[in-house]
């Protein structure tokens, strides 16, 4: 295939797509709004699954590099009741299929695997349109434009490419994270460090949860989960860290202090991370030469599959383009049909899990889910 693939967005989906295209000898250019790879923090840990995310890594020919990024022991899991009682505990014996890596390290691995110049930094998209004679044109904030034979929106939740395909826009999913970090936890936050253990912690209750993970070194990264409206969060002044911490902590009155310490002892200002989602099972009619990958195609509230699906999208689209040289439409149609089914299955599974998580029997039902999966 001689066609050039234009990719908007240098996140995991766009970079995986570019890398697998490179493996097949298909040229691609990635346009990214950020000015450099270091401009923005890339988030925390990702568990990359052997049934989807790792398949993308294999297609990219980067399994050896990936294994070098894995943080040993981080697949360990603990589930605690709000009073601190340990309900479930599972060690990481090295045989699991969901190894943990830092998102920033994974992105760096993909960037370093691409030829120099593949990613064009500092290109913020201001508009995308179809041309009367066919094809498309992308306009950037600096006034320059780009085209190509295939346009792929890998530009996340608020994709500028998505309107070419569908009028669907993300809506608030009803839950939010409040994100905190504890540094040097084994010496400065010992009770919280002991509660989290060597891997992940979930402390669930109806409408409120605390999720934490031990990242590289002895950093504890916490997501306090609240099932509240955006108006509820708007009443909190997140520019005042102390007041914010005190307000959120009131929602966990009576919880064990080693759990609430993950919030009250934070070494960073709490950050509100609202969750948005596209309509479950979203599809669109085929538009020549244009498609979406990752959150641009199937944004969902956090469900443990997002990064894995986004990487698999990129790999599968690249493989389809390689399998149909000279027939872009057949390739994209094949990719989209499989992607629609794949993402809908995750939507369905997530709906079942969320119904189970927020019913009265929780956290016992969550323990039953983990035990049943062993």
TrEMBL record:
What GO terms are given for molecular function? FAD binding; monooxygenase activity
Q: Which residues form a coiled coil?
A: none
Q: Where does NADPH bind?
A: 40
Give me any GO biological process, just one. Answer: response to antibiotic
Locate the residues binding FAD.
47, 103, 295
Q: Where is the FAD-binding domain?
A: 3-324
Gene3D superfamilies the record matches: FAD/NAD(P)-binding domain (3.50.50.60)
Signal peptide start and end residues:
none
GO cellular component annotations of the record? cytoplasm
Q: Which cofactor does it need?
A: FAD
For this protein, what is the EC number? Answer: 1.14.13.-
Give the family from UniProt: Belongs to the aromatic-ring hydroxylase family. TetX subfamily.
Domain notes per entry: Consists of an N-terminal FAD-binding domain with a Rossman fold and a C-terminal substrate-binding domain.
Q: Give the multimer and partner information.
A: Monomer.
Which HAMAP family does UniProt cross-reference here? TetX_monooxygenase
What does this protein's UniProt record list under function? An FAD-requiring monooxygenase active on some tetracycline antibiotic derivatives, which leads to their inactivation. Hydroxylates carbon 11a of tetracycline and some analogs.
> What protein name applies here?
Flavin-dependent monooxygenase
């Amino acid at each position: 295939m001689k066609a050039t693939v234009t990719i908007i967005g240098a996140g995991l989906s766009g970079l995986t797509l570019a890398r697998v295209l490179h493996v097949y000898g298909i040229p691609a250019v990635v346009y990214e709004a950020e000015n450099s790879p270091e401009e923005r923090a890339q988030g925390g840990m990702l568990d990359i699954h052997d049934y989807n995310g790792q398949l993308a890594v294999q297609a990219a020919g980067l399994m050896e590099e990936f294994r070098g990024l894995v943080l040993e022991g981080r697949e360990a899991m603990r589930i605690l009741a709000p009073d601190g009682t340990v309900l479930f505990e599972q060690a990481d014996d090295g045989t699991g299929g969901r190894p943990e890596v830092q998102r920033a390290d994974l992105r760096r691995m993909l960037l370093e695997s691409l030829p120099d110049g593949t990613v064009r930094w500092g290109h913020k998209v201001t508009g995308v349109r179809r041309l009367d004679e066919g094809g498309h044109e992308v306009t950037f904030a600096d006034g320059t434009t780009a085209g190509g034979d295939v346009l792929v929106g890998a530009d996340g939740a608020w994709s500028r490419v998505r309107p070419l395909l569908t009028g669907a826009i993300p809506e608030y999913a009803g839950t939010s994270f409040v994100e905190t970090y504890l540094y040097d936890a084994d010496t400065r936050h010992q009770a919280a460090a002991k509660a989290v253990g060597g891997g992940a912690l979930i402390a669930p209750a109806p409408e409120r949860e605390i999720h934490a993970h031990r990242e590289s070194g002895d950093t504890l990264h916490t997501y306090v989960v609240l099932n509240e409206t955006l108006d509820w969060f708007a009443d909190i002044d997140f520019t005042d860290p102390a007041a914010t911490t005190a307000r959120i902590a009131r929602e966990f009155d009576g919880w064990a202090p080693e759990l609430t310490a993950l919030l009250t002892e934070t070494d960073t200002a709490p950050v509100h991370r609202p969750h948005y989602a596209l309509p479950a099972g979203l599809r669109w009619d085929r538009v020549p030469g244009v498609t979406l990958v990752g959150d641009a195609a199937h944004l969902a509230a956090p469900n443990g599959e997002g990064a894995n699906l986004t990487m698999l999208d990129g790999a599968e689209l690249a493989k389809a383009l390689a399998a149909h040289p000279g027939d872009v439409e057949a390739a994209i149609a094949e990719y989209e049909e499989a992607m629609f089914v794949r993402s809908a299955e995750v939507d369905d599974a997530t709906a079942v899990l969320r119904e189970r998580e927020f019913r009265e029997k929780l956290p016992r039902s969550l323990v039953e889910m983990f035990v049943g999966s062993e």
